[in-house]
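Contributing new complexes? Match this layout with S-adenosyl-L-homocysteine.
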Amino acid sequence: MSDIRIVLCRPSHPGNIGAAARAMKTMGLSDLRLVAPQRFPAPEDAWMATHAADVLAAARTHATLTEAIADCAAAFALSARPREWSPQVLDARAAAARAVALDAPVAFVFGSESAGLSNDELFACQFLVHIPAAPGSSSLNLAQAVQVVSYELLMAQGTAVPPMRSEKLATVDDIEGLYGHLEQAATANDFMAPGSKLRERWRRLFSRVPALEREEVNILRGLLKSLLKK
Ligand code: SAH
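Output block (do not edit by hand):
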């Protein structure tokens, strides 16, 4: 995430700069760059940033977009508006995946609240990115657009949800043992009529469990065993 830069072009409301810093911080981003902000620093940015004051304090200000993205291997321009001529178009999810796969410094570039990105700014970037939204109301608040992109970047890392505790997985032998026990129990109780498809049905059922643990299979087998005893 340290390779990702968020660039705000000519933001007019300092509150949005603070809210963007907060959005970044909640998703693990910290490199904020401002191109010719109308007012910065200002009291409103600190109010909106709350605990992301460090992101604001480290934000660098640049005179032009070219200067702000000079050290980046690729830049992704965010715009709600489709353009007749543009760099290649991606949605936010695909853009995040592309950025993470590049494994190099990249910038996500946002336009001003009033006018969005200029054509020159758009063509300084290699990608045009849309956040899918309702037709006719597709323009998000600047900081909310930063939030969506930051979230997609976090998800694209593939580390948002820690892997499940790794228990010993059941082997084919364990699972065949369970099927044997199920059949015994179903026959002993006259539950399984001759010609019944029960065998196939429970095999189908358990085949949909991607990673049965040995312990889980043993619990089911233990239960069947004790029912059979009675
Ligand atoms: N009024 C401006 C939009 C301002 S919203 C216009 O007409 O272009 C501020 C910025 O948030 C935009 O420049 C863009 O970078 C980003 N943004 C807002 N909604 C977006 C969307 N649906 N997809 C991509 N970026 C969006």
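Reviewers usually confirm one structural detail per submission. For this one: The CA atoms of residues 121 and 196 lie 69 Å apart.
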